Amino acid sequence: ACGGGNDNTGGGGNTGGEGFKGGTMTVYLVDDVEHLDPVRNFVTNSNAIGKLLTRTLTEFKYDGKTKKTELVPDLAEKWESNDGLDEWKFTLKDGLKYEDGTPVKAADIKYNVERGFSPDLSEGSPYPKEMIACQKGYVGPYSPAGNNGGKGCEAITTPDDKTIVFKLQRPVAEFDMVASMKNFSPVPQDKDTKTQYDARPVSTGPYKIQTYTRKKELVLVRNDQWDQKSDTLRNARPDKFVFKFGDDEAVVDQRLIANGTADASSFSFSGVQPQNLPKTNSANVKDRVIEGADQCRRYIAFNQQKPLLKNQKLREALYYGLDRVAYQTARGGERLAAIVDSVVPEDMKGYEADTIFQAPPAGDKAKAKALLTEAGYKGEKLTLGTADSGLAVKAAESAQQAWKAIGINVDIRKIPGDNYYSTQQNDASASDLITAGWCPDYPSIASVVAPVLGPDTTSATPKAAQNNYGRSLVGFDKFKAVQLVKDKDQAVKDWSALYKEIMQTAPLVPTVKDLNVYVLGGNIDSAFPDPNTGGIPDLTQIGLKKAS
Amino acid sequence: MTTSTTEATERAKPVKGDVLLEVKGLQRHFPVTQGIIFQRQTGAVKAVDGIDFTVNVGETLGLVGESGCGKSTTGRLVTRLDEPTGGTITFQGTDITHLSRQKMRPFRRDVQIIFQDPFSSLNPRQTVGTIIAAPFDIQGIKTEGGTKKAVQELMARVGLNPEHYNRYPHEFSGGQRQRIGIARALALRPKLIVCDEPVSALDVSIQAQVVNLLDDLQDDFDLAYLFVAHDLSVIRHISDRVAVMYLGKIVEIAERDELYNHARHPYTHALLSAVPEPDPDSVKRRERIRLTGDVPSPLNPPSGCRFRTRCWKAEDICAEQEPPLLQIGAPGHSAACHFPEERDVI
Amino acid sequence: MSNTAVEEVPPNKATGRAFLEVDNLQVRFPTDDGLVRAVNGLSFKLERGKTLGIVGESGSGKSVTSLAIMGLHKGSRAQVEGEIWLDGNELVSMRAEEMRRLRGTEVSMIFQDPLSAMHPFYRIGDQLVEAYLVHNDVSKAVARKRAIDLLERVGIPSPDKRYSDYPHQFSGGMRQRAMIAMSLMCDPKLLIADEPTTALDVTVQAQILDLMNDLQKEFNSAIIIITHDLGVVAQMAEDLVVMYGGRVVEAGAVRDIFYRPEHPYTWGLLGSIPRITGGGGRLKSIKGAPPSLINLPTGCPFHPRCDFREYATDGSCTGDVPELLQIGATAHAARCHIPSEKRKQLFIEQIKPNL
Amino acid sequence: MFRYTVRRLLQMVLILWVISVITFFLFWATPANPALLICGKDCTVERIAQVNKDYGFEDPLVVQYGRYMSGLVNPNGRTLGNEGTEIHCAWPCFDRSLQNSLPVWDSIKSSMAPTVWLATGAAVLWLFFGVLLGLMAALRKGKWLDKLSVGLALFGVSFPTLVFGYLLIFVFIVKLQIVPFPDQASSSLLQSNPWDFVQFYILPWCTLALVFAALYTRLTRANMIDTMNEDFIRTARAKGLTERKVVFKHGLRAALTPIVTIFGLDLGGLLGGAVITEQIFSIQGLGKLSINAVLGNDLPVIMGVVLIAAFFIVFANIVVDLLYALIDPRVRLS
Amino acid sequence: MTLGATEAQSPEGGLPSDHIAETAEAKQIEGRSLGQIAWARLKKDKLAIASACIIILIIAVAIFAPLIVKISGFGPNEFNQTDASGKSLLDTANGGFPNSGLWGSGMSKEHWLGIEPQTGRDIFARLVYGTRTSLLVALGGTVLAVLIGTVVGMVAGYFRGWVDTLLGRLMDIMLSFPSLLLIMALTPVVADRAKDMFGVEDTNALRMGVLMFVLGFFGWAYLARIVRGQTLSIREREFVDAARSLGAGPAYVIFKQILPNLLPTLLVYTTLLIPSYITAEAGLSFLGVGVKEPTASWGKMISDASNWYEVDPLYLFFPGLALFFVVLAFNLLGDSVRDALDPRAGRS
Ligand SMILES: Nc1ncnc2c1ncn2[C@@H]1O[C@H](COP(=O)(O)OP(=O)(O)OP(=O)(O)O)[C@@H](O)[C@H]1O
Ligand SMILES: Nc1ncnc2c1ncn2[C@@H]1O[C@H](COP(=O)(O)OP(=O)(O)OP(=O)(O)O)[C@@H](O)[C@H]1O
Ligand SMILES: [Mg+2]
Ligand SMILES: [Mg+2]
User: Where do the ABC transporter domain residues begin and end (chain B) (predicted)?
Assistant: First the structure.
């Protein structure tokens, strides 16, 4: 389960759907949302807000009380796949409308998926491009040549306005989960403003955009065309959401802790900053604190492309040598980070506690040193890449120190945050030791093991996948078989076994998961940190206690 | 080339009365430009506009004129501190008008300059010793007994305490500074010293000391001076011959007494009569000529005779024709005027 | 126009003093290097309509004296002692505000360097008008008219046009004329001209001196003219004060001083000037340099440079400061330890032939 | 004057052009692969190739530069993006961000207002206090007020902005709670009520103004002392002007003239972004925009901000020169 | 003729030559250059002495940082999350700030100025090493800026003509760059370029070198302008003509005549540039474009500490104070030097 000990049940224990409806809720974000255009919306912050505007074929629902996540129908009423798991058919619910009252058609969903093939709108989830068997070289509906005479991607068909069928390149057992990605939402072609759509997407959800001033403010108001009955997922309690961008996190913390009247109906997307943690224990704040974890796991990958790190003993020495307690402290201590022993989230099906290394949290220096001698390490320099942000750098420094203590020389290389992953994904520019994190896109062990340790499915030669920062090539022959397993329970078992097998080779060392502590304004009700959206309180459930 | 004394003997010995310096048609036009990147010339300040004169060995030629008439520029041209835009300068028979810096080097010893401002003519960051030794340094001359001895001799000669070798200029008074400048100019035993208003900045009492010193030195070293000043009394005191300049031209040139007693050019008259005489009774005696207005801009001087705008005798011809510098009266007396004065002033 | 209190009681009668009377004036400046004694017990008198010349070497305290009369040392570090009586008012002890009212109307000043003495940002005319408006409650137009009148009077061509020129647009001579016009705006009773022509060419100097002479006749003010140039005083002044080291060393009528000087310093001065009528003989210079005002030589401040020390009778020249003693019946006075008779003799025997 | 202005404006264009060339080639010659940045999280080799092609990163730098400049030179702006999804980027077009593909000019425009508010507000403060303090110090030279001002100024010059900013937050927001926590919504005068606006900016203004005020105090003091020793001040006194008039009409006018120049240049420099102050108070101005762009390697944004900032500087130079000519009649512009 | 007070102090006249006799009380004063006079004035200035002492101390600290840290016992990059007995020094349950010492600073007998939150690094050691960074970068940048500025300014001022026009335009352009922005943007870029071109790894030494380079590169133009102006005016002084009339070439004139007269300007400018570069380095590190982790730098410390000022104010206080004092000391010294060199003298 997520969250720490004093996880309370969302400030008041209201069950979803009930409680006061109305009022204006203010939400603080450090930065402007990246994208609201559903086909580009793929980051936790935007995703959480996008949920209020955009409905997808399926969606995950997190129950704050049972702490279970389940896949529920959203736009789709039902869906089915063929035996080969490479053709999926979704049927839409009745009476779905856009904010302007026009009905939602299956073709609009097809259209939006297609938009994602356009090079200018490629920030969204990559799965459609990877999975759907569109004709080769398809680049979306905007390219005059590529749109296939108006037919678009031939692998997506809409037999009628309520049915949509996807033909896949390979079997995907979890395509219904993939269908929860924002790509699978409708965009009316006549309202499409291409790259500008971002600023004013047409809503199918309970809210629509009233105003949107970049870097300042986004105001959502009720969409009266949305029908609560067709939507089991969203409670949509406040009348209005005001998202304010740009205020410093720590400053917002202070406001929320102070709980002035202006801030009673507010909360912040960023958790409480470490320096403000002590204040969350005081009496008038304690009750307004919620804590939660997310599905993301941090680790340091050992780049086996580098000759030095092809040496398993050295990798193991690094594994044992890492002081994860120091690492945790550097990331803000117990309340902001918890030590993990696997990159698979503990509450995910298929998680198993580590039995291979069983390294103590603070590392095993003696063993590490012994392994180092075995490895024949002679003091060569290793570079540790880290994103250039406060906590990440601190954490990297702690790793550097821990390794130095057993005699490994590590240099830190700071890479600007926005560039970080692209730099590390590029073989030429990747560092030796790579600090990384992975958040599964949907709650399945498959969406952990494959991207983190698996092969590049698009490449003929055995080659590590983009996010396989360790560049481990172990077990690549087995991935195809596991992906084909239809039985879900069996698949979980197989993935778990594969994970274990690969981890034997010490391709990475799991470090911590992030914990988030939120302070809510006093008037906030039903705030459940949703692990699927990076632990951010679920905006579809949240509400106010009374009109402010 | 061992000592400064043998030095002097090795060089062509000047003979009194010979022409030392001859200047012909000397011109210096300062271009006036405009433009930020590509500059184009929009006019010229005709600071010196074609003058001729000679300086003989051991004599003093005085150069007077109002501010801005081109006296200093002439001095700088003669010492080749400035590049003439026209005319020739011949020194002891050699045309030095456009010699390169390297070729000029030997002549540098023969022609020296003393400046008006005793503050700006000495580098405040160098000791007196260094300043006076600079000529030896720059010309690479070794002297018997070392440079220091030579410098101290020079200091004594100009009336400075040789023990003050290590002092800095700011520790000296104006008159003493002027002496330092003179010592520097004397170091290489020049034949000609251009004195650019060397006493204008000094108090009367000090001025007399320096004038006397210059007088003495001339006798001792057979020096020729080109003595620039705006003070007609000082010029009269020190010069053998006097040239009067107006707006870049020499308007009159003559032996000293000839000029002061029998001036022919109206401008010279005006200048002479404007000098206040330190004699309360003479005020009434002397004839007064009062010029009106100021010197016109050398940027576009009046046509014809440049003095005509302030001249009480000007007629039409003065605007049309530039009067040439012609001999008039005594030998060696020339004036550039269409209507030279016949009477005497003083 | 001027201070009413001054008008009601004709003060010179009340006090029995001359129009301007400087009595034992002392001005000192404390500096990092010590106390600069710029003026040390200076006394002289001046009546209306007369011109007094002050000559002396650089640093002898001429400008400091004039600033003291103007009251411009008030509010600065300078320590001013002694008495200055102007038209019945004592200026040294006067309050700054009262003194301010007198400036421009009672006493005004022409400075040496007219370019730096005028504000570069204001038009010439406006600077003149300003001087008038502080003391006269009249409209701008009236003041303007007066300014143009005066500009014309000092010989500036088309004054109504030049009225709105800036100082830098004037030539040196015109600036000095404008400066004179400015000082005359309020009909001052005393005009102090501190080296009014030093920066000018002889031809222009002659114009300005003529102008000042004319103006004095017209305005009947008292003039103090300060200069290095003995020629200028000979031409302009009736009375003369020779200053050395912050003191008067000789004073008297111009002729007395030019033709019968009694102080060795004055002899030196007269001997060192080359004369336009003279020949090429040696000049008679004064040896040495002016004294430091911080460490004034003891006794007669001139003694280190004096060639006639041996003739001093009563005590040595280094002993005490000689008194400024009147010579004969005239106002002629000198400050020297050599007896007057001896001085007369020395002058006739040794000095005069060389002049 | 008119011709001079025209010439200076032409010169400004020239300088900006040179700056654009230098900046462009400096930055675009970097090994940091911009395609990687655009490509995002899941970046295949093909996709990189595609991006490189779409954005023209593979063209010779000169061609890229020409394309960039076309958006600034052509009054119709230029077209960005690929066939089918092209957007029109109106003049002046500074290309689009690599991070969020918004036209850079839009980001600059929206960031400009906070920076302008910050800089001008601070400028008013520092000019007022700096000049006032400097003036008082000069007039009371050697007295305790002078010593106090000199001390304060020295203190201000030496106090690091970094520390001062946080000190202000700590004291006035956190401890004393005189000023409320900043709220970005108040950062625009046009959208918020004036009181909120002032409360939002008051601390940043003070932070930014401190160093400048200190500098101006010293400058004013020194200038004023020099000016009061000028001959024309003596003349003014000799006319019998009141001390007040002497100081304010004659002294201050001359003493402030050089300050006008420096003020213009300082303000011009700040309009390009007060990076540190904006960072401390998280004001979403040009400085913040640029530091984010720098940390994110967002070349078009950096380029845009640099050009805009340079424009302000050069423009301020011209304004200052013209102003100077107005104030000081001795300066003749030709 | 303006007679300065110093002038009036040497009251002797001319010396034996014809009839000019030496004045009796000609005082023998040591030959003192303007520099020596300035030095004498400086020595009398208590504030200047105090700040010079501080500066010397700081420089000593920078040089002997390893030694000092050896005495204090903790390295600048060592994590000290627990003390020798294994007791945790950080309150890991509350974000990891020090749980002991004055105001939560972690100050103790071992850690004189406390420890850093989250990592437990010794603040004293980091402060000491931060001095190195600050001074090295500031001094390096200053030297570079002054060097380039002097050379360019002198060349432009001496040769005038098209050389001057060209260099003048270059200065204009350099001065039109928004320098902080470019310094910010270029530091990583130049480091990258250096890596590319010379194969130097992006180490901390390289970073510092780059910082110096970039600071110097964008800082010279202003000085060059001043130097140019001064050279132009010194060149017009007659002593330069005097040298030229003796046959001196440009090198002699530039180095022997002009340069010595520029020294006061350069000295004053240098003392003012150093503190501004110290501040700049701190600012850059604060913004995250300065030195590399884990190298200690005051700016970096302030940036880190800015998150903690409420729970651990001393963490912000120490680097802030250090920065303030050093900048103050340099400014004070700069003021004193300027006053001492100013012939008009007299600060009061
Ligand atoms: N470098 C220069 N560039 C332009 N004009 C110059 C230059 N040097 C001198 N002039 C001009 O040439 C004219 C003559 O100058 P010069 O210095 O020779 O006069 P002068 O007779 O020595 O005057 P003064 O008595 O004031 O020293 C003046 O109008 C001056 O402005
Ligand atoms: N404000 C001041 N502070 C210190 N010393 C001063 C001040 N003003 C004048 N002095 C000194 O007082 C002395 C007399 O100065 P003053 O200006 O009266 O001389 P002057 O006779 O007018 O000389 P010049 O002929 O050069 O104008 C000088 O030594 C000068 O240095
Ligand atoms: Mg001259
Ligand atoms: Mg004077």
Answer: 21-272
